[in-house]
# Entry
Amino acid sequence: MAHQENTQSGDLYISWDEYNKKIEELAIQIYEDGYEFNQIVCIAKGGLRVGDILSRIFDVPFAVMSVESYHGKGVKDEQGHIVFGNSLAKTTPNLGSKVLLVDDLADSGRTLRKCVKWLEHYEGFFIDDDLRTATLWTKGLSTFTPDYYVEFLPNDPWIHQPFEKYETMSILEIGNENELEEKKKLQSFLDKAKGRQYDI
# Structure
């Protein structure tokens, strides 16, 4: 299924099916290239889902690098200061020697570039020179080109990912949404029952 594009704003709307398909395409690309990594590091939050699925497909451990780069209420196209967490969250005692660094998007490229430097210089890590990067999307304005990516976007669209709705949804709205869904199911049942009654 192709993504939906708003031609006026240039925004891209990604469904869950397309999102998962792109992760599978990324996995195939990495596999066919023959890159044998033994560790995934995913950049949170965007790379969390991508890294988790890749770690399951390739059966390698993954670590989480907490990074915050977007700031400002109502600002979606500007990056603020990049803030790193104190350390990696991982379940293995040591980081693998061949690391695949994963994010969902290479936008300006600043975050990926700084994350690579952070990994290369963090004390106690022994990473080979073969650290590689992977994303689902790479924009034309990015100053950093990942080793692997699924789709190149020559322009600068804002990508609406399927989980984005939760960024502005409260727990009360979720409850109301579920209640509305139950009402729809009940109404559908009543309509069908009424239709059967008329058939008699």
In short: The beta strands are 4-5, 12-13, 39-44, 62-70, 79-84, 99-102, 105-106, 132-139, 148-153, 159-160.
